[in-house]
Design goal:
The chain has eight helices and ten strands. It is an alpha/beta fold. The chain has an eight-stranded parallel beta barrel with strand order 1-2-4-6-7-8-9-10, surrounded by seven helices. A two-stranded parallel sheet has the order 3-5.
Length: 184
């Protein structure tokens, strides 16, 4: 992932903007299983790669069987999840795996470290992405590339996340897509 910003797509309008943008990779957030074929076909038509947020696909369970179905049927570029079994299955199927980590409190962080140790994901998405000291800690402790997401609304916040060690920032803030599509 060679861009500072990765668009996070939360609506059909955002999907349309992503498809006509210079971005190659995007994160599909809220979706429904019945929409995935059309969305996936459009992404392929436009030469885009989608990472599906497995926990946010309505109509399918975010477990091993659901993950296997998504991987076989749609072959997404990547899968994002908080669930260790989803990450393991994605890796088994050769799909990029992104373990989502919520920085809620010390207990949640320690639990996430245990999951990460078990799954060894390709990337970790840290939320909220506005905590540079935690981005730095997770990067140092895991040696796994970091994506920062959640509550990033300003270019300065993107830059702070990158400076702290994030490989990229996932964001649904379209004004940030506009800014960073020009300077990347």
């Amino acid at each position: 992932m060679n861009k500072k910003v990765i668009p996070a797509i939360s609506s059909i309008k955002n999907l349309e903007k992503f498809l006509t943008s210079p971005y190659e990779i995007g994160v599909l957030l809220d979706s429904h299983i019945a929409q995935l074929k059309n969305i996936n076909d459009l992404a392929e038509k436009y030469g885009k790669k989608l990472m599906f947020h497995m926990d946010l696909i309505e109509g399918i369970k975010n477990d091993e069987k659901g993950t296997e179905f998504i991987c076989q049927e749609f072959r997404p570029y990547g899968l994002i999840s908080t669930k260790a079994n989803v990450i393991r299955k994605a890796k088994q199927k050769g799909v990029l795996s992104i373990q989502r980590m919520f920085l809620i409190d010390s207990h949640a962080v320690e639990q996430s470290y245990r999951h990460i140790k078990m799954t060894n994901p390709d990337y970790i998405e840290v939320l909220p992405g506005t905590l540079p000291s935690m981005i730095r800690e997770v990067a140092e402790k895991t040696n796994i590339p970091i994506l920062a997401g959640g509550l990033i609304r300003k270019p300065e916040e993107v830059e702070k996340a990158i400076a702290a060690g994030a490989t990229a920032v996932t964001t649904s803030a379209k004004h940030l897509w506009d800014i960073y599509e020009k300077i990347q």
